[in-house]
Write a sequence for this structure.
């Protein structure tokens, strides 16, 4: 009898934990959409709780504050990108192909997840003060830079890439070209008089970025002069 009661108690706890996680996930999903649409200032607790079909008090219970929820949203989008990048897992035995895979992934990911770009734009408007309080954000960026480092090391070992490159700089070069193209696609399309959202335009940009990055990293590329 005692064992039966204990089993029921464990099962009951498991059900409650699953329900709590479902509520938390629902709030995060709703908050991601609301913050992406209205920004941090316009993304009210009321809008989020209504979208998540829950109560305001549940948001405070799980996340402590609006800022705590926003930080969790930022950690979530970084985590999903980090997880997606891990699935592409380029083989560093072929460093050129691996670098092309990373470039293709970055451009494609930003294009397919405009909410990621929108949320980062919002956080940049706030000068990164929210994400700076996250202990997880650095972990995700470290993973991405480490991947670039492994690719560059393999390229240097094979005599294909320069040995004076900083992985961080190559990473920034790749993400800046991918991010800017997506974040400014609407205004640039109007300014240039041509759509940057067509598959042809995206493919052409990917080829250009790939060629540019490979020209920078290749072993016969002249290093930049050091200035005082």
């Amino acid at each position: 009898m005692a064992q039966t009661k204990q089993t029921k108690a464990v099962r009951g706890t498991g059900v409650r934990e699953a329900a709590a996680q479902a509520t938390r996930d629902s709030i995060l999903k709703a908050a991601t959409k609301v913050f992406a649409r209205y920004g941090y200032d316009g993304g009210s607790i009321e809008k989020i709780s209504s979208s998540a079909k829950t109560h305001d008090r549940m948001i405070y219970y799980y996340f402590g504050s609006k800022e705590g929820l926003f930080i969790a949203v930022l950690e979530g989008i970084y985590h999903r990108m980090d997880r997606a990048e891990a699935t592409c897992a380029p083989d560093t035995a072929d460093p050129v192909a691996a670098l092309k895979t990373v470039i293709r992934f970055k451009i494609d990911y930003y294009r397919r997840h405009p909410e990621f770009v929108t949320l980062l734009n919002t956080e940049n408007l706030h000068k990164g003060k929210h994400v700076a309080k996250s202990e997880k954000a650095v972990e995700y960026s470290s993973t991405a830079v480490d991947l670039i480092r492994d690719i560059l090391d393999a390229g240097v070992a094979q005599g294909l890439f320069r040995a004076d490159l900083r992985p961080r700089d190559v990473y920034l070069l790749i993400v800046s070209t991918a991010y800017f193209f997506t974040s400014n696609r609407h205004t640039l399309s109007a300014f240039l008089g041509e759509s940057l959202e067509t598959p042809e335009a995206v493919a052409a940009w990917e080829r250009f970025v790939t060629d540019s990055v490979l020209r920078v990293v290749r072993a016969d590329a002249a290093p930049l002069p050091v200035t005082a």
Remarks:
- The two ends are 80 Å apart (CA to CA).
- The first helix runs from residue 2 to 42.
